[in-house]
Specification:
five-stranded mixed beta sheet; single chain; alpha+beta; 21% helix
Length: 127
């Protein structure tokens, strides 16, 4: 039995995730919660040498709550940062957020190559 897109997205919303902490990012991210709201697979073409190659990736919409260590050494809620700067930081592959979302989305049958399409910065995440 295959799940419909609506059922699949409802299953994705059921769990609140935490970033995958490493030695580098454990001091920078505190009280982080991630909730996947929507995931969808798209196909696109890219060029390799002189050939077109069809590939697919997963676009994910997430809600994120947490605090990030500032350059002055204080933990600041992510809503207080400039929205463009903090979203660019959260989309990086090495901070653990993309890895946590990727593993959760892959569990439900989506592609492993993900892109955080939309990031909503919230104060609280509803359970």
């Amino acid at each position: 039995m295959t799940l419909t897109k609506r059922q699949l997205n409802n299953k994705l919303k059921t769990k609140i995730l935490e970033p995958i902490f490493t030695i580098e990012n454990i001091d920078y991210l505190k009280d982080f919660e991630i909730k996947v709201m929507r995931a969808r697979s798209i196909s696109y073409t890219t060029w390799v040498s002189r050939r077109r190659v069809k590939r697919s990736k997963t676009l994910v919409t997430v809600k994120i709550k947490g605090k990030v260590l500032s350059s002055r050494g204080r933990l600041i809620p992510i809503q207080m940062y400039g929205p463009r700067h903090i979203r660019n930081y959260l989309r990086r592959k090495n901070n653990g957020i993309v890895g946590a979302v990727s593993s959760w989305v892959k569990l439900w049958g989506f592609d492993n190559e993900i892109e955080l399409e939309r990031i909503d910065l919230v104060k609280t995440i509803d359970a």
